[in-house]
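Intended use. Records like the one below are meant for learning the mapping from a protein sequence to its folded structure. Do not use them to infer anything beyond what is encoded.
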Amino acid sequence: MITELIVNQRERILDEALRLMSAEGSAAMSMRQLAQACGVQVAAIYHYFPSKDALLQSVFEERRYDTRLASQVQVAGLEAEADVPERLRAVFNLFWSGALEEEDVLRLLLGEGLRNQAVALPTGSAMLELFRTGVLSLLEQYVPEIQDTETVSEVFVAQIFAGFIQHIFQPDLDTDLVASRAAEVLVRSVL
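Structure written out for the chain above:
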């Protein structure tokens, strides 16, 4: 029971830290503000995380889309008789929906990376590599007709991030429309 409480408290701290940091950036969040949001003393935060950088690193390591992405094995709704553009769009939509599900983590990671926060760089680099590897794997599996999968995967990843940036700066745009446009640019660029 006590172990479960400790795990739950640590998880709550990570969840609240992600929420607060993704909204304002890690520099704007104080440990006191985090403690208040979690309903704990500041000392409880430091019990689990010796510094804000350690907290940020744990948020990146434990709240990452790329971990879930690595376990994706099937593209939902993909029919065997679908043509190449349809299959490419289906793979794109898998990545897009995953990015939206993990929007807070991606916002935080992009923001900290743009501020050149050293703690974000290894995680961001690892995420990009996992994206590329995941895209390559799914392209080879679901769209084997594509000849230059490495080039296509680079364009693919660029379109995911371009769409995500558009989603951030134009939040009133329908996310399905943003995804559809980004996927169409991908299809037109590589086929």
